[in-house]
Amino acid sequence: MIVGVGIDVVDVERFLATLDRAPGLKERLFTPAERELPPSSLAARFAAKEAIAKALGAPGGMSWQDATVHRVVGGAPVVDLSGTVLAAAEARGVSSWHLSISHDAGIASAVAVAEGR
């Protein structure tokens, strides 16, 4: 059963300009492993986290550090949840995620589908 669907689109240049203007933002938005990714991948990870939040109904109080998006060679990306994001997912009965991310022509996008039991 589908519990929620979220989508987000990010202008990569605008996103990177925002990161440059706010030096601590990168540390707030991304886990240490994610921070090492190329700029377009960072924008795509941000879009994925936004899509996940939207699929959960955009509850307040979630920490971006509590969601890590991993690339899987030859497969769909995988999200690891912990803390506040995991609690929000569990409260809504989410048992699995389907995630698609892309970045091309200066745009990063993501779609997240939360599936319940």
TrEMBL record:
Cofactor: Mg(2+)
Cellular compartments annotated: Cytoplasm
EC number: 2.7.8.7
GO molecular function annotations of the record: holo-[acyl-carrier-protein] synthase activity; magnesium ion binding
Domain of life: Bacteria
Residues in 4'-phosphopantetheinyl transferase domain copies: 4-91
GO cellular component, one term: cytoplasm
InterPro entries to which the protein is assigned, alphabetical: 4-PPantetheinyl_Trfase_dom, 4-PPantetheinyl_Trfase_dom_sf, ACPS, Ppantetheine-prot_Trfase_dom
Reactions this protein catalyses: apo-[ACP] + CoA = holo-[ACP] + adenosine 3',5'-bisphosphate + H(+)
Claim: Protein transport is one of the keywords in the record: no
Enzyme class name: transferase
Residues given in the record as Mg(2+) binding sites: 8, 50
Pfam families reported in the protein's UniProt record: ACPS (PF01648)
GO biological process: fatty acid biosynthetic process
UniProt keyword list: Cytoplasm, Fatty acid biosynthesis, Fatty acid metabolism, Lipid biosynthesis, Lipid metabolism, Magnesium, Metal-binding, Transferase
Stored HAMAP family: AcpS
Function: Transfers the 4'-phosphopantetheine moiety from coenzyme A to a Ser of acyl-carrier-protein.
Record-stated family: Belongs to the P-Pant transferase superfamily. AcpS family.
Record protein name field: Holo-[acyl-carrier-protein] synthase
Record organism: Ruania alkalisoli
Source organism phylogeny: Bacteria, Bacillati, Actinomycetota, Actinomycetes, Micrococcales
